[in-house]
Amino acid sequence: MKQLPYILSLVPGVAFLSSCGNAAQQKTEKQPNKPNVVYLIADDLGIGDLSCYGATKVHTPNLDCLAGQGLQFTNAYATSATSTPSRFGLLTGMYPWRQENTGIAPGNSELIIDTACVTMADMFKEEGYATAAIGKWHLGLGPKGGTNFNGKIKPNTQDIGFDYEYIIPATVDRVPCVFVENGHVDGLDPKDPITVSYDHKVGDWPTGAENPELVKLKPSQGHNNTIINGIPRIGWMTGGKSALWNDEDIADIITQKAKDFIVNHKDTNFFLYMGTQDVHVPRVPHPRFAGKSGLGTRGDVILQLDWTVGEIMKTLDSLKIADNTIFVFCSDNGPVIDDGYQDQAAELLNGHTPMKHYRGGKYSSYEAGTRIPFIVRWPAMVKPGKQQALFSMVDVYASMAELLKHPLQKGVAPDSQNELETFLGLGNKDRDCIVQQNLNNTLSIIKGDWKYIEPSGMPAIERWTKTELGNNPKPQLYNLINDPSEKENVAAQHPDIVKGLSGLLEQVKNSYKKD
């Protein structure tokens, strides 16, 4: 505890929802004594996927090194069990279920963060930081009505606080399979415009449904629309041939872009938000990693992800700025094995347990849906160790604001709480409670030893992955200390705790009102 004043002395000072605040004018003065921040968020990575979290069938030396040099959280959660809402919560400091359009976004979704909202990137810009979004985005681009990928795409990430963007618009299993750089599709030939639809086929490009003989990675469920690089995707597209990515090269490309940004801003304060496509489907590793894990392509892209982390670490080290750079690593949600392609991920697990001993997975209200690996390294200030306190990714925003002595105006980051001492390992106080959502917005709440899942009449199984969603018409209550695998619903035995937690959940739901 006593270290906190010393640390702070070193750092002086979707249905659109415009009430999350208005951006202040950017400050331009350089304040190099503030820490740089790299926030690297992996895709569909499980808490059991890393050797630093106990995996024995796959080895992740770079992430092990990051954890060994930093603070490794064992009780950290994403806000959501799917990608789009989880990322929304991180960047806005608002629970994503407060909005109507933060489900899994299609590849031509409009920007789902209101440009009037003060994002975490806006905050860093106001503090004089150079900011960048690189890699997977999945929060939409363009105006309501869908994205036009020909010409300048507005609004884009530059309208919500990022100086530079080089992004994958959605997920790698969704069209369009192109990169967007500062509002323009990288490499697009204007004579070959892109058309994208999620309602009906466009153009004459082959699809997985119509031309299965052209497919090199067969779908297990869905994923039978336009074929790109021999892989059928979700959605239809035509045009933009010169801009299409090669799946094997995606990790190399976004890693190099991230390294370039760091090098170009080594003498300034910077905030890098980097999303990897690994380990999301389709899992297509670079030949350097193909076949190296012994766990099939899912294991191979875990190795590729570990390489990406290593490259960022090496870059920070070579520039001698690692000591004063906060490097945060996490996943957007829990793991999934079969997520729509016949890649033998389940058959080749070989005893590997991405979910560890937790129930559920991506999409689910159960623990494996939102309990994530979370690592914070800041060599100059953070003492290496384990952090067992209850922590939510939604609190990164307010905690960074506290670190930078940046006052948050009313309505900004309304659900984010200052948990800086927990974030830096200076204390181990649990967050009072954590609220999470699953695929169909069923909410759960954790407080102390207990987890409550609200009743829901939605389907109990995610049809693509056969994952238990955690939906049940009756309330569910689990003691996570005695029963971390959530095997026994004890709601009937503890009606008082059910009443208390359901009431607390309603209080959280009603704690913020749109103006």
Explain what this protein looks like in three dimensions.
This protein has about 525 residues and is an alpha/beta fold. Helix content is about 20%, strand content about 15%. The chain has ten helices and 22 strands. The strands form six sheets. It has a ten-stranded mixed sheet with strand order 7-6-5-4-12-1-13-14-2-15, with helices on both faces. A hairpin with a 5-residue loop joins strand 17 and strand 18 (about 445). It is globular. It starts with a helix and ends in a 6-residue tail after the last helix.
Helix amount: 10-25%
> Could you list the spans in which at least 5 consecutive residues all have pLDDT below 50?
1-30
User: Could you give the order of strands across the largest sheet?
Assistant: 7-6-5-4-12-1-13-14-2-15
Evaluate the radius of gyration: 22 Å
- β-strand percent reads 15-25%
Number of distinct helices? 10
Query: Shape, please?
Result: globular
* Structural classification: alpha/beta
Describe the structure concisely.
The protein is an alpha/beta fold and 515 residues long.
Layout of helices and strands:
Layout: H1 4-9, E1 36-42, H2 61-69, E2 71-73, E3 76-77, H3 83-92, H4 120-126, E4 130-136, E5 164-168, E6 180-181, E7 184-185, E8 195-197, E9 227-228, E10 231-232, E11 236-238, H5 250-264, E12 270-275, H6 296-318, E13 325-331, H7 367-370, E14 374-377, E15 385-387, E16 391-392, H8 396-403, H9 420-424, E17 434-437, E18 443-447, E19 450-453, E20 461-462, E21 467-468, E22 476-479, H10 495-509
